[in-house]
Write a structure and sequence with these properties.
The complex is a heterodimer of chains A (241) and B (402).
Chain A lengths: L1 H8 L3 E14 L2 E14 L3 E5 L6 H8 L7 E6 L2 E2 L5 H10 L1 E4 L11 H12 L3 H14 L15 H13 L5 E5 L7 H16 L3 E6 L2 H4 L4 E6 L2 E6 L6
Parallel strand pairs in A: 3-8, 3-9, 6-7, 7-8
Antiparallel strand pairs in A: 1-2, 1-4, 4-5, 9-10
Helix pairs in contact in A: 4-5, 4-6, 5-6, 6-7
Chain B lengths: L2 H14 L1 H39 L3 E6 L2 E3 L2 E3 L4 E2 H10 L3 E16 L2 E10 L3 H5 L3 E4 L4 H5 L4 E4 L3 H4 L4 H4 L3 E4 L2 E9 L13 E5 H9 L3 E2 L1 E6 L5 H16 L9 E5 H44 L1 H9 L4 H37 L8 H27 L3 H6 L2
Parallel strand pairs in B: 6-11, 8-10
Antiparallel strand pairs in B: 1-13, 1-14, 2-3, 4-12, 5-6, 5-9, 5-13, 7-10, 8-11, 9-10
Helix pairs in contact in B: 1-12, 2-10, 2-12, 2-13, 3-9, 10-12, 10-13, 12-13
The chains are: A alpha/beta (241), B alpha+beta (402).
């Protein structure tokens, strides 16, 4: 109960990790993908998570994104204890609190841009009219107002990633969680996407980027480096970006 | 809540691979069509028997002469007489009507038209016992019979066969075996009883027949109507007792007559038809089952193909229930479309069987509803496992799948 009191004390904390660990059982061996992570991310922070492959950053992203549950420790997302949530509550948390942006965009190929952006709102239980209104607005924010009825196959990589960002934004989540968002884009398009992220941060969104590229991480105000499932550094170079 | 969206997604998914969906549905189409057609055939057969039963009257017994065989040779052609009929009418308290009958096929002449028809010699109460109604004119009466009058009542189809009609044939003369008979009545149509069509028979008074045609007082058969509330078996025992005494048959000797319970005969036919229906429906059901397995197979393929989509949807907030519902609805939509097509095909086949093969078929509302419920059930039953597999996919693995 002291933990709950603690979380109430930091009203601004969007994410609060308390000694988070994630272990996998591989046969008789136990592999610790994450160990003893304690960190807080507050509203409107712009955080980059870096680390070599195998450092645990994917696991960390999955736990932050409520796709995976920690095997140790406690995780509060907006003062809700995620590490105790059941499947249904996790789905709701993913829907309401998290906006995912993937390296490979992960759009549904049979659907138009507008329909893709509507998907999270369907699961939120919104009516069609309201869904379309909000989806159009989100596409407008990412600068794709004129591409709503195009399918992913009719769009460039940058445009697809913009659709994916619009889809992540459309539920007004607490966090935008981007996993190597520029990994599949050329550098010019990648820069455009990063500019878009910067703008979204300026508009008050909380951003977490998982990346292994230094120039991408430099957009963020705070860089957390992982190695062997542990935080090796947590820096805020300068006074923000 | 999001059932319409789910339905939409299912339809989109089906239409995105229409050929495969069509092949998958084919199993259900054939299965449902087979069930509908087979049940229609079986129901038709049963209904035909029901109609025959109604036409016959369930409480009529027929007493006939029985040929007694010895060493393969018929001997002692046993005989039923008008006296036997009189004895039954007089002595049995279980019978409502006793109708002696003689039946022969004769050439009937009307003007320049010739017909070969069954001529039945019988008593006036024939109409009541066998449930006939007079359409025009009258039935011959006891006076006609007693004075062996040459009068004839014709079946409903006879006037037509003679190029005339019921009203104008009354009072005209018919030649039966070159003897002139006056037409005094036309029966209402009765419909076939399964053995024979009574609508092209003609009836003359029994004594007229015996006097003019056979020359003795033998009758071929006696029909009796069992009094209401009396068990058929009780009446049969009573008839046997009276006739054995009339014929002077010693105890231990066989009857020289037989009592034929037509209802029993039809009952066994009905039973056979029922068994036949179940058998056919069973075989058709097996093909439906095979169709269902086809659905399951293709749904499993679909789930594997769309693993990544499932992962994306889960990441965007779909619950297990959402995913389960989506795949269940998809398999049910497949099955229901298949069921609808199968229903049309089966009803069409039943119609053609009736139209061109002359089989009586009935597509009942119950069989339509059953077929639909069954295909939905198959969609549910064979869809649940693939759908559960989809729902239980780990979102992280599903997202990584390619």
């Amino acid at each position: 109960m002291s933990a709950v009191a603690f979380s109430n004390a930091e009203q601004d904390a969007v994410i609060r990790f308390e000694d988070i660990g994630r272990a996998y059982q591989m046969g008789v061996e136990t592999i610790h993908a994450l160990q003893g992570l304690t960190l807080t991310i507050t509203r409107n922070e712009y955080v980059a998570i870096m680390g070599a492959s195998g450092s645990g950053k994917s696991t960390l992203m999955n736990i932050i994104g409520c796709l995976d549950s920690p095997t140790h420790g406690q995780y509060w997302l907006n003062s809700q204890l995620v590490s105790r949530m059941n499947d249904r509550e996790l789905a709701r948390a993913r829907n309401q609190e998290i906006g995912f942006v993937f390296q490979t965009f992960n759009l549904l190929s049979r659907m138009t841009a507008l329909s893709n952006v509507e998907v999270p709102l369907i699961y939120a239980g919104l009516k069609r009219r309201e869904r379309q209104r909000r989806a159009k607005h989100a596409l407008d924010v990412v600068g794709l107002a004129d591409r709503m009825s195009h399918r992913p196959s009719e769009m460039s990589g940058g445009q697809r990633q913009r659709v994916a960002i619009a889809r992540a934004l459309v539920t007004n989540p607490s966090i935008l969680l981007a996993d190597e968002p520029t990994g599949n884009l050329d550098s010019r398009t990648g820069n455009e996407i990063m500019t878009l992220f910067d703008n979204l941060h300026d508009r008050g969104n909380t951003l977490i980027l998982v990346t292994h590229e230094q120039h991408v991480a430099e957009h963020a105000a705070r860089t957390i480096r992982l190695s062997d499932g542990k935080i090796v550094s947590d820096e805020r170079p300068g006074a923000g970006r | 809540m999001l059932l319409t969206e789910t339905l939409w997604i299912a339809l989109q998914s089906i239409s995105s691979n229409l050929f495969r969906a069509a092949l998958t549905m084919l199993g259900i189409v054939i299965g449902v069509a087979a069930v509908i057609t087979m049940v229609a055939l079986g129901t038709g057969a049963q209904q035909a028997i029901d109609q025959q039963m109604e036409a016959l009257g369930g409480d009529i017994l027929s007493i006939g002469r029985s040929n007694r065989f010895r060493h393969g040779v018929a001997r002692d052609q046993a005989s039923l007489t008008t006296d036997d009929a009189a004895a039954l009418a007089r002595e049995s308290r279980h019978l409502d009507g006793v109708v002696p009958e003689i039946n022969s096929r004769f050439q009937v002449k009307y003007g320049n038209r010739n017909l070969s028809v069954s001529v039945l010699g019988t008593t006036p109460n024939y109409v009541d016992v066998h449930g006939f109604t007079i359409e025009a004119g009258r039935m011959f009466n006891l006076a006609d019979d007693a004075s062996r009058r040459r009068v004839v009542v014709v079946g409903n189809e006879i006037p037509g066969m003679l190029d005339t009609d019921a009203a104008s044939i009354i009072g005209r003369t018919l030649q039966i075996r070159a003897i002139s008979f006056e037409v005094i009545g036309v029966m209402e149509a009765k419909g076939s009883s399964g053995w024979r069509n009574p609508d092209d028979d003609v009836w003359i008074p029994l004594r007229t027949a015996q006097f003019r045609v056979t020359g003795n007082d033998l009758v071929e058969s006696i029909s009796v109507k069992v009094r209401e509330g009396i068990a058929i078996e009780t009446a049969m025992v009573d008839i046997e007792r009276i006739l054995r005494r009339e014929h002077g048959i010693l105890p231990g000797k066989d009857n020289d007559f037989s009592i034929f319970n037509r209802k029993q005969f039809l009952d066994s036919r009905q039973e056979a038809a029922e068994v036949f229906t179940y058998l056919l429906a069973g075989i058709a059901g097996v093909s439906l089952l095979v169709g269902g397995i086809g659905i399951m197979n293709i749904m499993l393929v679909t789930v594997t193909e769309r693993t990544r989509e499932i992962g994306i949807r889960k990441a965007l907030g779909a619950t297990k229930g959402n995913i389960l519902l989506q795949f269940l609805v998809e398999s049910m939509v497949l099955c229901l479309i298949g069921g609808g097509l199968g229903l049309a095909l089966g009803a069409g086949a039943a119609y053609f069987a009736a139209e061109f093969a002359g089989w009586q078929t009935v597509v009942t509302k119950a069989s339509v509803i059953t077929a639909f419920a069954f295909s939905a059930g198959i969609g549910l039953f064979f869809g649940i496992w693939p759908a559960r597999r989809a729902a239980n996919l780990d979102p992280i693995d599903a997202l990584r799948h390619e």
